Amino acid sequence: MKVATKKVKTLDKTKPKKDAIKKKKQSDKTKVPKVAKKAVKQKAESKDEKRPKKKSAKKSHKKDLEGLKDLDPEFYDFLKKNDKELLDFNLMDSDDDDDDGDQNDAEMKEAGEEEGDEEDDEKYHKPSDDLAVASDESDFEGEDDGDEATTGGVQKITLNLLRQWEMQLGKPNVPVETVRQVIQAFNSALASISADAEGEQANAAAYKVVGAAAFNGVIQLCVLHLQPAIIRVLGVKPNSSLPLHKHKKWVKVRGCLRYYLTDLIRLVEQVSSSNILNVLLKHLHQMAGMVVPFTALGKTILKRLIVLWATGDETVRVLSFLCILKITRKQQATMLNHVLKAMYLAYVRNSKFVSPNTLPGINFMRRSLVEMFALDLNVSYQHAFLYIRQLAIHLRNAVILKKKDSFQAVYNWQYINSLRLWADLLGASANKPQLQPLVYPLVTITTGVIRLIPTAQYFPLRFHCLQSLISLAKETNTFIPILPLIVEVLRSNTFNRKHTSVSMKPLQFTCILRLNKAQLAENGFRDEVVEQVCGLLLEYLAHESATLAFSDLVVPVVMAIKAYLKECRNANYTRKLKQLLEKIQESGRFIEQQRSKNSVNFDLKDAKAVQAWEQQVRNKRTPLDIYYTSWLKTHETKKRRQAAQVDDINADYDVPKLKRPAAKTGVPVRNENGELELFPSDSEDEAVGLPKDEDDDDEPEMEQPQKKKPKQKADKKKIEKPKPTATDEAADDYDEAATAVDIVKDLDLNDW
Questions:
Q1: Whose CA, among 207, 306, 537, 587, lies 20 to 30 Å from 521?
Q2: Rounded to 5 degrees, what are φ and ψ at 305?
Q3: Cβ-proximal residues to 144 (8 Å cutoff; 6+ apart), any chain
Q4: Rounded to an integer, what distance in angstroms lies between the CA atom of residue 419 and that of residue 286?
């Protein structure tokens, strides 16, 4: 009990009589003789012998209270709610014992009246409350101790230390200890900015990163010099095919590499700037070979990379996919199943809404996912069979139930994009037999989707499905009955009905699945339908124009087009369809001429002979094929112009055009001569290597007249407030101090 009393007394440092009591205790201790101490000890031992009797009485009292639970349960519940301390008898025992111990210590020390009063107050002492009150001096003492530990035990990272590490990492014989120190510094840098600092202070105890310069220096050192240094530590030869984890010195760097890769992917998760992400992903791509032995860590890294692949910017998507591809190919046997499932689900999840802004990202995901499935077609067959079967189940429910919810489960962008994905995959693997059994189920599902609601309201969805079927037929050289599905559009009552409203803006089906009533009544709807019909017929028949049965294949199409031309009163529609009809008939006559020659002397069952004959005709180029090639060039130019939202024809030629001065909100940025700068930068050389998009081809030409105009006083006021344009929106990312986003994009790793 001596220890308990000492603890309580040390907590009362802040009381005013502390110094006087200490002096009194010291004087009392000197006065107590040894004989008196022995007597007090014997007396305390005799009291300890009497304590078990008290404890037995307390146990019997506790049993009585427990018996009260059976005799009067209502009163027991009342005590439990209102006076729980009476029932918690063990706590009272400990308090009594503590009180007895305090009295024994008081007798042993022979304290005066003041000390006795103080101990009476200490009977009701609560450690948690007094600890908080009496921690004023101890807090200051702890802070002083922490400062001493920081200066003595924790090393502060400076630029000189980073230069020393950089020199050591550049040596041919890199010491392993330097690599570990750099990785510890990287961990300390992350701990300095992380929100959950409690769990990272133990790992970050070796170094202290203070300031943005030190943090930036540590990250640069790791990104630029760590991977080559580890390669030199392992002694990897230039053309060695041996995996990194099978080298002899791998054991020395295995542990620190695990921590470094964990910190690196955590940094990738926290970074929001696409420019910094690009640098980190390039570094992760270099480190991909070192992820192989860490299976659990590899799954975590791939999970984050798949999120970036599905939701990031354009460059981030590409770099993430390259990292996924490299990591997966290193451990294809264990990771491919996991990666394919996660990537397909991410693709479906992020293809729910299609717009001109999201369409390029969805197309990239589809093409890259096809490449991932092509890594191992035997594994891909299991996934493709499962997900195509799910599409078939949704279609079956819609056909049987015929409810709005079941229809919506099929007629949505996720379903259509899934059909496109599997059509592209089967077309890409047409020369291999593993996935070819899935062609027939996929074609059946796609035609079933078209037939589900064959109204004019869903013509855009029909055209999307037909486009995927045509691409599948071209890639797999499989005959698919597509022509009836295209031609029956011309017989639709809604399509042949006269339009009731005129729209100046053309209607595009690229990002549309369903049309509303207002769009069905516009003339733009009929224009786009005729354009789609002509384009799909021309694309499919151009591919089939070299087949042996082409002249027989086009008979129903020719009859349907002629029947429509008799009833059509629109000169523009008749001109397009007549031109197409002429090319179809010309190609039919060409095939008949080729068949009438003596070259066709083989049996139709001989597939190889038929293919050889068709290849000869394809080399000669049919009239429809030649016409389709020229049409495709103009059509692609038109699509690019629509994607760039350029309505004038001058975009296709080098015709100079005037750009209207635009008023820009905010303070304009000016150079040293007082001239207005639309694209401010720190140096003139930085604008040379900027990556340009296709839409920004005219930007350098437009800068010169904008810079010359401020010299004229008459036009100066107009230019100071330019109107916001597409090119000026990019300039809004700049601030007045010329801290430009372009500078970050232009950042070179060697200059970083």
A1: 537
A2: -65, -35
A3: none
A4: 35
In the numeric block, which tokens belong to residue 240?
């060695």
Of the candidates 104, 81, 113, 73, which has an alpha carbon nearest to the alpha carbon of residue 5?
Answer: 104
What is the pLDDT of the chain when averaged over all its residues? 76
Three-class secondary structure of residue 511 per DSSP = coil
Of 464, 473, 376, the residue nearest 419 (C-alpha): 464
User: Residue 331 corresponds to which amino acid?
Assistant: Q
Residue with tokens 């659990």: 296
Tokens of 604: 């139709």
The winner for highest mean pLDDT among 213-217, 245-249, 694-698 is: 213-217
The pLDDT, as a whole number, for residue 425 is 97
Here the tokens at position 676 are 């207005």
For every residue of 523-555, DSSP letters joined together read: HHHHHHHHHHHHHHHHHHHHHHTTSTTHHHHTH
DSSP line for 685-715:
GGGTS----GGGTTHHHHHHHHHHGGGSGGG
Contact predicate 556/486, CB 8 Å: no
Cβ-count burial 737-750 (b if 16+ within 10 Å, e if not): eeebbbbeebeeee
List the helix and strand counts (H, then E) for the chain.
37, 2
Give the model's pLDDT for residue 727.
Answer: 35
Strand-strand pairing, 207-208 and 155-156: parallel
Q: Determine the Cα angle at 373 with ends 368 and 378, to 5°.
A: 170
Given a contact cutoff of 8 angstroms between Cβ atoms, the answer to whether 327 and 338 are in contact is: no
The answer to whether 576 and 533 are in contact (CB under 8 A) is: no
Query: Out of 226-230, 539-543, 703-707, which region has the weakest mean confidence (pLDDT)?
Result: 703-707
Q: Confirm if 610 and 599 have CB atoms less than 8 A apart.
A: no
pLDDT reading at 171 higher than 70: yes
In the chain, the N- to C-terminal Cα span, in Å, equals 66
Instruction: Give me the phi and psi of 476, to 5 degrees please.
Output: -95, -5
- Phi/psi at 208 (5° precision): -125, 120
The region of weakest confidence among 5-9, 278-282, 503-507, 657-661 is 5-9
pLDDT digits (tens, 9 = 90+) for 625-654: 999 999 999 988 887 877 665 444 444 445
State the DSSP string of 115-132.
HHHHHHHHTT--HHHHHH
Nearest CA to 720 out of 656, 673, 677 is that of 677
CA distances from 235 to 179, 239, 248, 261 (A): 14, 12, 9, 20
d(CA 316, CA 312): 6
**Whole-number Å distance between alpha carbons of 650 and 689:** 27
Q: What is the pTM of this model?
A: 0.67
Bridge partners (DSSP) listed for residue 381: none
Give the pair of three-digit tokens for residue 678.
């639309």
Tokens for 118, please give them: 């103080």
CB-based contact 28:111 (threshold 8 Å): yes
Q: 396 with 402: CB under 8 angstroms?
A: no
Instruction: Specify the pLDDT at position 670.
Output: 55
Smallest CA-to-CA distance from 631 within 580, 589, 584 is with 580
What is the sign of the dihedral through the CA atoms of 309, 314, 316 and 321?
A: positive
The pLDDT assigned to 244 comes to 86
Instruction: Give the percent of the chain with pLDDT over 90.
Output: 52
Q: What is the pLDDT of residues 226-244, one digit of tens each?
A: 999 999 999 888 888 888 8
Q: What is the dihedral of CA 18, 24, 30, 33, to 10 degrees?
A: -120
Q: What would the pLDDT profile of 333-358 be if each residue is shown by its tens digit?
A: 999 999 999 999 999 999 999 999 99
722, 666 Cβ separation under 8 angstroms: no
Please tell me the distance from the alpha carbon of residue 719 to that of residue 736, in angstroms, as a whole number.
17
Q: What is the DSSP letter of 155?
A: E
> Please, what is the Cα angle at 280 between 275 and 284, to 5 degrees?
145
392 pLDDT higher than 70:
yes
